[in-house]
Amino acid sequence: MANLRVDRDRLWATLMDMARIGATAKGGSCRLALTDDDKAARDLFVRWCGEAGCRIAVDDLGNVFATRAGRNASLPPIATGSHLDTQPHGGKFDGVYGVLAGLEVVRTLNDHDVSTERPIEVVVWTNEEGVRFAPGVMGSGVFAGTIDRDHALSQRDARGCSVGAELARIGYAGPEACGARTFGAFLEAHIEQGPILEMSGHPIGIVTGAQGLAWYDVCVVGEDAHAGTTPMTARRDALSAAAEMTVALEELAHAHAPHAVATVGGLEVSPNSRNTIPGHVRLAVDVRHPDATVLGALGEAFERRCAEIAGRKRLAVNVERVEYVPPVAFDADCVDTVRGAARRLEHGYQDIMSGAGHDACQLARRVPTGMIFVPCAGGLSHNEAESAQPQDLAAGCDVLLHAIVERARGQHR
Questions:
Q1: Average pLDDT of the segment spanning 327-345
Q2: Please, are residues 314 and 205 in contact by the beta-carbon 8 Å criterion?
Q3: Closest to 143 measured CA to CA, from 177, 178, 188
Q4: Which SS3 state, helix, strand or coil, does residue 185 take?
């Protein structure tokens, strides 16, 4: 077992074969959830898993489970996987790597005639990206109990098509109730989607958890006025105030370095006319931190700064928190299993905190969960130019293989 390794070339070829479905002109992938391309990707995955001897099941959210039998079918399986849907201008690896790394684990165990006490399952989760249907991480969220099943199935896209109807149309509205099955643990491999591993030179990230997230809508109300005739001292300029609030947010994030990140990602200005002082501005704000207490304090401090700026400029401001996702700490035993696998394989590694949400973050609220990151070029993701090296992908898959085998021995409860 110590010398067991995945087939790097086969893993790469499988990734490239999947990338041909929904291929974009600039070398990326576009497979929005529950489209014909998503169906084609699922069908190909199901065929490959069937050829590898797996039993296939589908639940009523369209989550696909490919099971490699273990010696003791009464034990909950060790699961791995991710998603096959992409962003409109997505890359070849986001999500897809986690699914096909799981398949490569199964193939490698088959090649070497390795049996495990527990079954092993490779999962495709439905609509992780949340592009066509909101919210994202839908399939894993319903499975974990953080998203209501009926609410998810009723969500509609821009053309009015519902999740439930589209699942039926593409043939992936399964008979099994979502969340009915149990796992002994869930391990997900993923590209980092950030630059930390590449900068450090380590091929493996041991993911200890994921940052919490708070979204705010900030509405600043001043007064429309003529740009040429209104003295500077008489203005109630909502955009000027919003600019100060943006700088204040950045200062707060720097004050809580290195983990805090804060972004003004959306700006709406009214009346949006060159020669009119803006009377109304809306900011869309994203704040993240791995500590829930610090995340809350950041939000409170930002609200105070907004109120101070608005008062000084004789404006009204309303700060509303419209979304909150608490930080996630992955299971310490799963993290140790992944770390031990990387150490035994003599891969350089470092602990890392995920800045993005993943299916694993949903699963962590229900089952012991861990994640493995591998580098991606420039930290670029959600982009057609997304790139990862075959040797890094294989290294991450080797760590996944050994971690799964360790967990599937049956002694973990």
A1: 98
A2: no
A3: 178
A4: strand
Residue type, 159: R
| Alpha carbon separation from 51 to 10, 58, 79, 119 (Å, rounded) | 15, 17, 19, 17
The four Cα atoms 376, 381, 387, 393 give a dihedral, to 10 degrees, of 50
Q: How many other C-beta atoms are found inside a 10 Å radius of the C-beta of residue 332?
A: 11
CB-hemisphere CA count at 13 Å for 120? 35
Other beta carbons within 10 angstroms of residue 71's beta carbon come to 12
pLDDT tens for each residue of 18-51: 999 999 999 999 999 999 999 999 999 999 999 9
d(CA 307, CA 366): 39
Instruction: Calculate the average pLDDT of the chain.
Output: 97
Token output for 254: 């720097």
So what's the pLDDT on residue 79? 98
For residues 123 and 189, give the distance between their C-alpha atoms in angstroms, rounded to a whole number.
12
* Parallel, antiparallel or unpaired: strands 78-82 and 120-124: parallel
pLDDT for residue 132 is more than 90: yes
Check if the beta carbon of residue 285 is closer than 8 Å to that of residue 247.
no
Distance CA 111, CA 133 (A): 39
